[in-house]
Specification:
Chain B: Keywords: DNA-binding. Chain B: GO terms for molecular function: DNA binding. Chain B: This is XRE family transcriptional regulator. Chain B: Pfam families: HTH_3 (PF01381). The complex is a heterodimer of chains A (132) and B (68). Chain A has four helices and no strands. Chain A is mostly helical and 132 residues long. In chain A, α1 packs antiparallel against α2 and α3 packs antiparallel against α4. Chain A starts with 6 loop residues before the first helix and ends with a helix. Chain B has one domain: lambda repressor-like DNA-binding domains (434 Repressor (Amino-terminal Domain), Orthogonal Bundle). Chain B starts with a strand and ends with a helix. Classes of the chains: A mainly alpha (132), B mainly alpha (68). At the A-B interface, α3 of A face α2 and α3 of B.
Chain lengths: 132, 68
């Protein structure tokens, strides 16, 4: 019989696992043992996944999804706008005597275009899914 | 959107935690609905109404500006 967990105990375990993984990743960065970093992250994720299934109460519900939707929308707006503006400023500065900035500006601008393209693709998909 | 969820919960002598478990949502969602900070989906509103054997509009009351 698998012992069930309540949310408080799950949160406690989750934090302990995250701290342990962070410590192991830090240790591996110092010692150069990258296999330790990868294996600790994978094992940590597996343990988290296994204990998540034993939680009695609901962890994610419609309110959490709604918060996530709003946060994603704001993130797209902020990151897309800032990336595009900073990218264009870098390109302009690059042409005004700082050529090293042009590549960085181009990369940021392409990133903004890619972000917009992915957003539009998912927007069209969900428009179709929800009956447009 | 105003609601009487707190009243119905008290009438049935349930804690927020117990109601959340029965409805399959988190306690934070029950708190947010009771405070009027979150409007539940139609699905959850009907689930709440069915749970309390009431009608949706017995529990959830649209504000004047929303109703027009």
């Amino acid at each position: 019989m698998v012992k069930k967990l309540n949310v408080k105990r799950y949160e406690l375990y989750r934090r302990a696992i995250m701290i342990a993984v962070a410590l192991l990743v830090g240790l591996s960065a110092v010692t150069g043992e990258f296999a330790l970093a990868i294996s600790s992250v994978v094992i940590g994720l597996l343990i988290l996944y296994s204990i998540k299934g034993r939680v009695e109460q609901v962890l994610v519900d419609e309110r959490a999804f709604k918060i996530s939707e709003k946060a994603s929308r704001r993130t797209i707006q902020v990151v897309g706008t800032v990336t595009a503006i900073v990218g264009l400023i870098m390109i302009v500065l690059g042409r005004g005597g700082y050529p090293a900035l042009t590549d960085f500006g181009m990369a940021l601008t392409y990133l903004a275009i890619f972000l917009l393209a992915v957003y539009l693709m998912f927007y069209r998909y969900y428009s179709w899914k929800f009956g447009e | 959107m105003k609601n009487k969820l707190r009243i119905y919960r008290a009438m049935h002598d349930l804690t927020q935690e117990e109601l959340a478990t029965r409805l399959g949502v988190t306690r934070q969602t029950i708190i947010a609905i009771e405070k009027g900070k979150y409007c539940p989906s139609l699905e959850l509103a009907f689930k709440i109404a069915r749970f309390f054997k009431a009608r949706v509009d017995d529990i959830f009351i649209p504000e004047e500006s929303e109703a027009q």
